[in-house]
Amino acid sequence: MTDERLRFGFGYWTDRAGSRVKWNYNGGRFRLWSPTDRSLGQIRVNLDGTLLATIDLAAGIAGPSRVVFDSGELTSGYRAVTVELAGGGAMVCDSFDFVAAGSDAEEHT
Asked: Which domain of life, per UniProt (predicted)?
């Protein structure tokens, strides 16, 4: 989908509960970006198979894409982040930032 609310102008949208998106990376801290809107639902953020958070994208004020989850500092390593639509509306997959192993610079996907 293309939408001016998205960080880079495009992303992916689904309203099918249980739908997932996955990022594999070698690094530490990561941040998940998404717009917020009443039509959106709850998402589950998992790191290496462990649930870190459930986020309600419909809560609060509707607005453009922003950081909706920040992992905080993590030891660097090979990681798998999965975001799953838990239900209650749709999910917009916008972008994902991480700090690469051996670097202080953020990468964007």
From this structure: Bacteria
CATH code of 12-108, in short, is: 2.60.120.260
For the chain, the first-to-last Cα distance in angstroms comes to: 16
- What pTM does this model have? 0.88
Tell me which of 9 and 96 has the higher pLDDT.
96
Query: What is the tens place of the pLDDT at every residue in 94-109?
Result: 999 998 877 766 666 6
Q: Where are the chain's structural domains?
A: 12-108
**Which distant-in-sequence residues (6+ apart) come within 8 Å of 103 by Cβ?**
27
